[in-house]
Each structure stands twice: as structure tokens, then as C-alpha cells.
Design a protein that fits this description.
The complex is a heterodimer of chains A (340) and B (271).
Chain A (H helix, E strand, L loop, with lengths): L2 H7 L2 H18 L7 E10 L2 E11 L4 E5 L6 H8 L7 E6 L3 E3 L3 H5 L2 E4 L11 H11 L4 H14 L15 H12 L6 E5 L7 H16 L3 E6 L2 H7 L2 E6 L2 E6 L1 H8 L3 E6 L10 H4 L4 E5 L2 E6 L2 H8 L6 E6 L2 H9 L8
Parallel strand pairs in A: 3-8, 3-9, 6-7, 7-8
Antiparallel strand pairs in A: 1-2, 1-4, 4-5, 9-10, 11-13, 11-14, 12-13
Chain B lengths: L16 H14 L1 H27 L1 E6 L2 E6 H32 L2 H6 L5 H29 L8 H25 L4 H17 L11 H7 L3 H13 L7 H28 L1
Antiparallel strand pairs in B: 1-2
Helix pairs in contact in B: 1-5, 2-3, 2-5, 3-5, 3-6, 3-9, 5-6, 5-10, 6-9, 6-10, 9-10
The chains are: A alpha/beta (340), B mainly alpha (271).
Chain lengths: 340, 271
């Protein structure tokens, strides 16, 4: 499942650097980089609790921006701010060049598509009716919706379920119907709050495929997720949040390279934790972490380390390239968050 | 959307309340017949059992009017009061249990607010919807009363819009409690502590003159009392006394309650 970074840490490096150079160059040359949405210095407090603090970011046309962070990091509040459902205590949001949130919420929402964390489908309507009724909230008439509905259902792979009610659908189908519903107004920007949480791998892959299709069509996406493989696969850029603040920002590859050693060797089994105190091994790793009975050696030289580990044949080892999950855990810690 | 700044800002309404109203209508249309039977069966059972049963014992009831005391058959007295009570109950049920389901349980409102529809439009649509459902119920009851020949006053045509307003008043009041509810259990308090006493203090079942003076003074300001004071004379083929004052009390309740409901709902959705 981590084939992506394996390629990247090998011969792909040079290509990556060249690509970064080109995109950065383009950005520097443009007088005003085009942005679809720009948030500046957002702060949101509930009583004494600051849930979002001085958060700035932007979304460029055609980009998929991933927002990752542990529970309570401020991801959902950020989306609520972007939707104008709550007003920031400080900072501003400018969308589509001239529109401001929350003042122009209606005009902005006419061009947004939203999939919230929890399904809000109408249980009393069929799939087709759900789309038709939702289109009406955007002022889209019946005749126009009659044209769009078959295409939307087809996109969601729900053509056969047009007359089924949400209660008869699987979790994945419901999420796809929510996605189709978010597309009724042909939005420029999609805000997706954990769109694949609770789905099985097949349903998740189908959702990814659909999101990639949308990106190819030129739509922009802001996506929050707890799945690092999802973030890595879909997102061109990531925003890592914790305690309401931005910790770091960048492309998945850049972030991994910037914050982590290229390789990880995991050692697990009874007594594995003791190896973390073995100076012969720790000397070969830049960083060593213990979680339960597993030791994580982050290293620049995996070969020497795996050879040294041959002296401990009773332990099971796994050598893999460093990935986003490692980055996430390094930046936000391994402890379980309250309410998680 | 200036209401973001203050929960008590005036309603910010656009025509986007209509698709929300229509959404509720389309759901209801699927279940209209069984729901209608449920809505009118109970008030009619009350009417028949009480009206004819008690009516045989009570005979005629004296109603005080500006022209002095007028006697009417108990069934007419009860029918004119209980139809106001039905308007109240139908609107309250819809704006409490059903609206709460849409607001909190199904998260329908959250979904709608992701589209370019504001919370004010949603609350307004819910209020009108509960009023409409109440209107539909009382229309059916009114037709049955006509068939039973309880009253054939031509002024019943005017009772119709008054009853529709009564539905709107109680829909607005119920939405205040909807905004405060943590769960369905909360509504039991509303029914037992507010609606049931009001039924007995508003002249639905017996003339207000039976009540102690102090209670009468309170009763005069209850919304249901004012609705009954308008509707009963119309059933008796008379013009209501102090019609303007009673109508004003109802309008004041509707406006004040809707505003409070809106402020509380805005507060709820900001949290």
C-alpha cells in the first residue's frame, strides 16, 4: 500500500525536484498567483477555547488541498468558517477573487459543493429525488435537473439505484450519493469533510477514482482526511493542523523529505522494545521511537541497520520508505487525543 | 448575512424558503392519506364522544356576547373551540417533533445550509409548513363538521383564515421550544405544562365565566383564548366582539414568537 514513496525515494527524486523547480518558477513569475479561495489569519474562539488560530492558506484552481490533523485540530471548524456557518473572530476569507465570507455566503455557496462528515441525505426521498430536491436549493429548475440527474447518478455509479431510498444503500453508495448531490450545481470548488471515513477498501477506491476524475475535469478540492494514503494519493498540497494552528504546509513528497529520514525499519515481537536501548542499533538510526512493543528506526542508511538487525533473528522486521503517516505522527505525536 | 453578528437581528428572508417548504410538502405527499387520518380521527372522536355524550347531559350552553347572553347547543360550543385546539395541536406537533427530526436527527437543515439557503429562510419555511399542515388538518375537520351539520354559518369561510393564523401562531411558539430542545423528551414538558393547561383555560370545553376572576384575567391573554373568541361567534353566525383586539393579540404572538425562535435557532447553530 505504500508503493508511492518507494518510487519517490529511489530514482524519482531528480524528476520531483525538477517539477518543483518548474512550478515554483511559474509561481514566482506570475504577478498574482491565481487563487480560488484565500484565508488570511483566521481565528475562531468558543469561550476560552481557541479552536482555530491565525490560520492562512489558499487554494489554487485545479488543486486538491488536503487538510490533515488529529481529532480536534480544527479541520471541521475550518470548513464551517469557509461555509460561513460561523463567523471568524479574526481574519478574513476571500473566495472567487471578490467575494467575502460570511458576508457573501449565498453567492459563494452557489459555486461550492459540500460533502459533510455525516450524511445529510433525505431518508424519505429516492436517490433521484434527493438530487432533484437539492438542485432546487440552488434555484435549478426541474427541467434542468431532469437532464443532470442521469449523469450525476452515473457518475456516482448509482444508475441502478435511482429509485432506491438512502436507507437501502450501503455506506459507500450513500457517500457517493452525497458527492453527486454536491455536484448538482456544477461547483468550482468542492469541500469534502472526511469523505471516505467508515468505508470499506472497495468503496474507498471507487470514491478516490471519482475524485480524481473531478480533478481531471479541472475542479478544485479541499479535503479533510484521517487517511494518509488518501492524502498522498489525491492531494497536490497538504496543510497539517494541530491545536487549531498550521504546523506545516507543502506537497506530500516535500514534507516527507523535509521532516523525515528516507527509510523506516520497524522491529516488533516480544522484547523488541529493548532494542531501542541497544547503542549498536541506535547509532545507525537518526531517530528511534518506541510504541508499545514496536520500535521504529528512522534512518539514512537502512542497509547497515537491517544487517545489524540480523543479529536479532527472533525479531520480525519491516523495512519500508518513510511515508505520510510517519510524518503525521512525528508532527502531531502518538498520544490518543481526547474524544478520539 | 448581517445576522451573523447578532442573534436578534431582524429576519433575513429571501425566496429560498420556498424550496425548503416544497421539500417538506413532497415528503408529506408520500404519506398524506395515512397522516391525514391520524390528524383528524382524534379530534373527531373527541367531538363526537364529548359533544353528543356530554351534550346530552349539558344541553345548551350560554355564551356571553355584546348583545347579552346567547344559548347554543353544546356540540356547537365544543366544535368551535376544539377546532382551534386542533389547529394548535397540528401545528405544534409538526414544529416540534417533525422539525426537530429534520433539524437534529436527520440533519436535513445542515444539508440545506451547505446550499445557498440561509438559516432564516429554513426557520421561516418550517413555520409556514407547520402552519400549512395545521391548515390542511382543520380544513378536513371543518368539512366533516359541515357534513355533520354542526354549523352551516356562511361566516365559517372567515373562520378558515383565522384558523390558519392560529396554526402559524402555534407553529412559531413551538419553534422556540424546538430551538431549545436537547431531545424529543423535552417536548413532553411543553405539552403537559403549556398546551394541556391552555386547553382548559381557553374556553374550549366550558365558558370562561366558570373560571375564577384572577384566572380569567390570565386566560384573556392566552393565544388559544383569543383564537376561540374569534372563531366561536363565526360558528354561531355572529360577528366576533373586539375582533381587532383578538386578532392583534394573535399577530403579536406570531411575530414575537417567530423572532425569538429565530434568535434561539441562530444561537443553536452557531455553537
Amino acid at each position: 500500500m505504500n508503493s508511492g514513496p518507494a518510487v519517490g525515494s529511489g530514482l524519482g527524486d531528480g524528476v520531483e525536484t525538477a517539477r518543483n523547480f518548474i512550478t515554483r518558477g511559474l509561481h514566482d513569475n506570475a504577478a498574482m498567483p491565481p487563487t480560488l479561495l484565500e484565508a488570511r489569519g483566521l481565528t475562531k474562539r468558543y469561550g476560552d477555547n481557541t479552536v482555530v488560530q491565525d490560520l492562512s492558506f489558499s487554494i489554487a484552481p485545479g488543486e486538491c488541498l488536503g487538510v490533515i490533523g488529529p481529532n480536534g485540530a480544527g479541520k471541521t471548524t475550518t470548513i464551517r468558517l469557509l461555509l460561513g456557518l460561523t463567523a471568524p473572530d479574526d481574519g478574513e476569507i476571500v473566495c472567487f477573487d471578490t467575494l467575502r465570507m460570511p458576508a457573501d455566503a449565498r453567492a459563494v455557496k452557489a459555486r461550492l459543493g459540500v460533502v459533510s462528515q455525516f450524511d445529510t441525505l433525505d431518508p424519505d426521498f429516492t436517490c433521484a429525488e434527493n438530487l432533484e430536491v437539492y438542485g432546487r436549493y440552488f434555484g435549478i429548475g426541474r427541467a434542468e435537473m431532469r437532464q443532470r440527474i442521469p449523469r450525476l447518478l452515473e457518475f456516482a455509479a448509482l444508475t441502478q439505484k435511482a429509485d432506491a431510498k438512502p436507507g437501502q444503500l450501503s455506506g459507500g453508495m450513500k457517500r457517493r450519493l452525497s458527492l453527486a448531490r454536491a455536484l448538482v450545481n456544477d461547483p468550482d470548488l468542492l469541500l469534502l469533510d472526511e469523505p471516505t471515513t467508515g468505508l470499506d477498501p472497495q468503496a474507498r477506491h471507487l470514491m478516490w477514482e471519482r475524485l480524481q476524475m473531478l480533478l481531471q475535469q479541472g475542479k478544485s478540492i479541499l479535503l479533510t482526511t484521517h487517511f494518509m494514503d488518501e492524502a498522498e494519493r489525491l492531494c497536490s498540497r497538504l496543510l497539517v493542523l494541530d491545536h487549531g494552528r498550521k504546523i506545516t504546509e507543502g506537497t506530500p513528497r516535500d514534507l516527507i523529505r523535509e521532516h523525515l529520514e528516507p527509510d523506516v525499519v520497524e522491529v516488533f515481537g516480544a522484547g523488541a522494545a529493548d532494542l531501542a536501548k541497544d547503542p549498536a542499533l541506535t547509532a545507525l538510526a537518526s531517530r528511534t521511537e518506541v510504541s508499545g512493543e514496536t520500535v521504529f528506526f528512522y534512518t539514512q542508511d537502512a542497509k547497515a541497520l537491517t544487517e545489524a538487525l540480523h543479529r536479532h533473528p527472533q525479531q520480525r522486521t519491516l523495512h519500508r520508505p518513510a511515508n505520510l503517516e510517519d510524518l503525521f505522527l512525528k508532527l502531531t505525536g502518538r498520544q490518543i487525543r481526547e474524544g478520539a | 448575512m448581517s445576522q451573523i453578528n447578532s442573534n436578534w437581528a431582524p429576519p433575513h428572508l429571501t425566496m429560498r424558503w420556498w424550496p425548503v417548504f416544497l421539500r417538506n410538502f413532497l415528503v408529506w405527499k408520500k404519506l398524506a392519506i395515512p397522516s391525514l387520518i391520524g390528524n383528524i380521527a382524534e379530534p373527531l372522536i373527541w367531538l363526537v364522544a364529548f359533544g353528543y355524550g356530554m351534550g346530552a347531559l349539558v344541553g345548551k350552553v350560554t355564551v356571553a356576547t355584546s348583545d347579552g347572553a346567547v344559548t347554543v347547543p353544546y356540540i356547537l360550543f365544543l366544535a368551535s373551540g376544539s377546532i382551534c385546539m386542533s389547529a394548535m395541536q397540528a401545528a405544534s406537533f409538526e414544529a416540534l417533533y417533525s422539525a426537530f427530526s429534520r433539524m437534529s436527527v436527520q440533519r436535513t437543515w445542515d444539508g440545506i445550509m451547505n446550499a445557498p439557503v440561509g438559516l432564516d429562510d429554513i426557520v421561516f419555511a418550517e413555520m409556514l409548513w407547520a402552519g400549512f399542515k395545521s391548515f390542511f388538518t382543520i380544513t378536513a375537520i371543518l368539512l366533516v363538521m359541515l357534513a355533520l351539520q354542526i354549523s352551516h354559518s356562511p361566516k365559517l369561510l372567515l373562520a378558515w383564515p383565522v384558523l390558519a393564523c392560529t396554526g402559524v401562531v402555534f407553529a412559531s411558539i413551538a419553534l422556540v421550544f424546538n430551538a431549545l430542545a436537547k431531545g424529543y423528551d423535552f417536548f413532553t414538558y411543553y405539552f403537559t405544562l403549556f398546551m394541556t393547561p391552555m386547553m382548559f383555560l381557553s374556553g374550549v370545553f366550558f365558558p370562561l365565566e366558570q373560571l375564577p376572576h384572577a384566572v380569567q384575567a390570565v386566560s384573556a391573554w392566552l393565544p388559544l383564548t383569543n383564537a376561540v373568541a374569534l372563531v366561536r361567534p363565526l360558528f354561531m353566525d355572529r360577528w366576533p366582539d373586539d375582533a381587532f383586539r383578538h386578532a392583534l393579540v394573535l399577530v403579536a404572538y406570531a411575530v414575537a414568537a417567530f423572532w425569538i425562535a429565530l434568535a434561539f435557532t441562530r444561537k443553536r447553530f452557531k455553537a
